[in-house]
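TL;DR need structure tokens for one chain.
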Amino acid sequence: MNVMAEYSYLVLYLPRGMPRDAARRMLTDHAEYGQWELARMLLNVDGSRKAALRRQVIRQVRTPQARPGRSRP
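>> reply
TL;DR here they are.
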């Protein structure tokens, strides 16, 4: 079964005056604690940045339940 992965996206706006170390720390926190990965970074003409983060959507699949009266092996 060949299924393409689904992603959810989060767009962060980083203003021009934000220090590079603070931006790195914020992106690292999102990656470490929220399981986000950097998909795209856009540097605007005014010096601000727009970061697009993504993470894979994991769909849960129901497993068949045991029928009443039958024991599991």
